[in-house]
Amino acid sequence: MAVKLLSVNSLAISFGGIRALGGIDFELEDQEILAIIGPNGSGKTTLINCITGIYSPDRGQVIFEQNIRLFNNMTVLDNLMLGRHVKFRKNPFHAVLRIRKEELVHRERVEELIDFLDLHAYRKMRVVDCPYGVQKSVELGRALAMEPGLLLIDEPFAGLTSEEKEETAYRITEIRGKYKTGILLIEHDLRLVSKLADRMIALNYGLKIAEGSPQEVQRNPGVISAYLGNE
Ligand code: ADP
Ligand code: MG
Question: pTM to 2 decimals?
Answer without folding.
Answer: 0.80
